[in-house]
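Q: For a teaching handout, I want to show students what a protein-ligand complex looks like in token form. Below are the inputs, and the small molecule is protoporphyrin IX containing FE. Please produce the holo structure.
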Amino acid sequence: MTASSLSFRLAVLFVIAGMAMGIGMAASQDHSIMPAHAHLNLLGWVSLFLFGIYYERRPALDRSRLALIQVLAWSVGTALMAVAVAAVHLGYTAFDPVAAVSTLIVLAAMVLFAYFVFKPSRDIASSPTPHMTPAE
Ligand code: HEM
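A: Here is the structure, written as tokens, with protoporphyrin IX containing FE included.
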């Protein structure tokens, strides 16, 4: 699977979970887990979908294992962060260290993405991109 299709698939799963969380907050009139909802939607839906668009426009990078690792690390960090931040705001302070670790995971994934942005994709991808030469 390419990094972009994994990004798009996980992003829609995250936003469905985030919307369900929002509906739950609205219905119960208890907004205490709002920070978890906001982060789940903005990291899991908006950011992940943007990563997918970036990768889809760079086919060699899209097929690279490093890009898949970036998407997976971001997604694991986001899921952990949503659960831990919700738990902390519900009073389960034991989840504090999990929240802290999750932030480091998403930071590491963003640093890896920054590397892709600053480094040309031909240096990252394992297989070279075929180039078409127009007929004269
Ligand atoms: C079914 C869809 C959704 C529902 C029912 C919903 C519901 C809510 C509720 C009840 C709050 C708490 C508001 C407050 O306490 O002031 C909230 C906050 C928030 N939501 Fe959603 N939401 C939905 C979708 C989304 C999506 C798709 C995003 C982002 C792409 C998003 C981003 C946010 C943010 C950033 C906040 C925090 C706003 C602030 O700081 O005041 N939500 N949402």
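A: Two things your students might notice: Residues 15, 18-19, 22-23, 25-26, 31, 34, 37-38, 41-42, 45-46 surround protoporphyrin IX containing FE (CB under 6 Å). Residues 3-28 form the longest helix (26 residues).
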